[in-house]
Design goal:
Length: 341
C-alpha cells in the first residue's frame, strides 16, 4: 500500500503503534481526492495488522491487512449511508447498536464513516455517548473535507489528522502506478498516457484522486477545473462580472461548487507562496505551486498583499462551509464575488 505525502497520518500511527495505545476516535480531513479513505484504511491496518514491521508500520500483506484492502474484514466496518448523508437511524442501527458486540477475529473493531460532509447535528448527537465512553475494543474513523462539519463535542473527543496533497512529481508517479495496475483489457488503461498524466497533474497539483478521476471520467471534473481557472483569471483581471459568471455556472450543484472553491483556494494559496518567494530562487520558488492556474496566481500576487490574500482565502473557506449547510448556491456565489473583488 503506497502512501504519497501522508506523513501527517504515518507519524502518529507509528507513535501509537509503538506504545500500543490508540485514541478511540479519529477525524481525517482534507480536500476531495487527497486520499482520506486511503489514509483511513492505513489507520485501520495500523489497528488490526497482525505482522507489523520493525518500524511499527502495518505490513500490508498479512491476512488482516489483505482483507482490509479488499473490503472483506469483519472487524473493519465501512458504514453505508441510507441516503445522501448519514441519518440518525444509520448511526443508531449500524454503529451504536453494533459496537457493543465484540470483534469477530481481532482484539479491536474499527468503524469507518466516510464523507461525513453535510450530515446533521442530530446524527452526530447519536454518536456522542459511544465516542465519549466507547468499549475498549471500539474505534471510530470519520472523514470529511473540513473539520468544521463536526460538532465541537465530537472534535474534543477525537484526534484530527489532516491529509495533505502530494507534490506534482508524486502525483505523476501515482497516476503511472494506477494506470499500470489496471487490467490490460480495461478501456481506461489506454487513457493513462504521459500526456494525460502530465496535464492532470498540472491541473490538480498533488491531488491524486481528482487527477485519476479527470483521466478516467467523462470530462465533468475537467470542466469543473476550467471553471476554477476562469474564476482565477477573473480575479487576476479584477473582472467582477466574469467572476460572478464563473461561480454562478457551478452554483447549481453544491458538490461541483465546493470543488471549484477548493481549487480556487489553492490558487490564492499559490499567490501567497509567490509573494513569500518573490525575488528568490530554489525549490520553494520553482515548485511551491499546487493550484491549477500558476500565471493567474502570480498576477494576483502583484496587487494583493498578504493580509488581503488571507482575507480572500478565508472567504473561500467560509463559502465552502456554507455549501455543506444547505445554503443557496447562487447566494453563496454572489456573496463570495463581493468579498473577493
Amino acid at each position: 500500500m503506497t502512501l504519497y505525502s501522508k506523513e501527517s497520518i504515518v507519524a502518529p500511527c507509528k507513535a501509537m503503534s509503538r506504545t500500543g495505545r490508540f485514541v478511540h476516535s479519529f477525524l481525517i480531513t482534507g480536500a476531495q481526492g487527497t486520499g482520506k479513505k486511503v489514509a483511513a484504511r492505513y489507520l485501520a491496518m495500523s489497528l488490526l495488522c497482525s505482522a507489523k514491521s520493525s518500524d511499527n508500520e502495518p505490513c500490508g500483506v498479512c491476512r488482516e491487512c489483505s482483507r482490509i484492502l479488499r473490503g472483506q474484514h469483519p472487524d473493519f466496518i465501512e458504514v453505508k449511508k441510507s441516503g445522501v448523508s448519514f441519518s440518525v437511524n444509520d448511526i443508531r442501527e449500524k454503529v451504536v447498536a453494533d459496537c457493543y458486540t465484540p470483534p469477530n477475529d481481532c482484539d479491536r473493531k474499527v468503524y469507518l464513516l466516510a464523507d461525513c460532509d453535510g450530515w446533521t447535528d442530530a446524527a452526530q448527537d447519536a454518536l456522542l455517548k459511544v465516542t465519549e465512553d466507547p468499549p475498549d475494543y471500539g474505534y471510530f474513523i470519520f472523514t470529511a473535507r473540513i473539520r468544521e462539519v463536526f460538532l465541537p463535542t465530537l472534535i474534543s473527543r477525537s484526534m484530527t489528522m489532516e491529509v495533505h496533497e502530494a507534490d506534482t512529481r508524486e502525483c505523476e508517479a501515482a497516476l503511472r502506478e494506477h494506470g499500470n495496475a489496471l487490467s490490460l483489457n480495461s478501456s481506461k488503461k489506454k487513457e493513462f498516457t504521459e500526456e494525460n498524466i502530465s496535464r492532470a497533474a498540472k491541473i490538480f497539483g498533488g491531488n491524486i484522486g481528482c487527477a485519476i478521476e479527470c483521466i478516467e471520467g467523462s470530462g465533468k471534473l475537467a470542466k469543473t477545473a476550467d471553471t476554477a481557472i476562469e474564476a482565477a483569471r477573473a480575479i487576476a483581471q479584477r473582472n467582477e462580472y466574469a467572476l460572478a459568471a464563473a461561480l454562478s455556472s457551478a452554483s447549481g450543484n453544491r458538490d461541483e461548487m465546493r470543488t471549484v472553491l477548493e481549487m480556487l483556494s489553492r490558487v490564492i494559496r499559490d499567490s501567497a507562496v509567490a509573494r513569500a518567494f518573490s525575488g528568490k530562487s530554489g525549490r520553494g520558488a520553482d515548485n511551491g505551486f499546487i493550484g491549477c492556474a500558476r500565471e493567474e496566481s502570480l498576477q494576483i500576487a502583484e496587487f494583493a498583499g498578504s493580509a488581503r490574500l488571507n482575507e480572500m482565502y478565508e472567504a473561500i473557506r467560509e463559502a465552502s462551509y456554507l455549501c455543506t449547510r444547505n445554503c443557496n448556491g447562487a447566494a453563496v456565489a454572489s456573496m463570495l464575488t463581493g468579498k473577493l473583488l
